[in-house]
Amino acid sequence: MITPMNLEDHVGDIVRKGRLHAGLTPAAVAAAAGLSVAELEALEESGTAAHTPNYGGLGPLLGLDAAKLEAVAHGWAPEPVDLGPWRELRCLTTLGMGLSVNCYLAWDEVT
Description:
The chain is α+β, with helices and mostly antiparallel strands. 41% of the residues lie in helices and 16% in strands.
């Protein structure tokens, strides 16, 4: 049985994490994206924007692939993975800088 796994990060989460990692101000990232600071904040919070951000300017500024970032914004998700072979699956959540990050650990006690 294939069980889909939600990555939980929408494009806004990815942008916010990239901005924080790069140490950039919201104003600098908003300018690169062609958004106002308020529009960037809405994008980071909800994953949606009033109009399409300039991913070509945003991606390189954040050290991200612009085409892949735009694909995530349009609903791209990885193919589901069959988790059946693994007897154990755990979600580990870490908190910091106002973010929660989920890490999924899967293992098979036999192999």
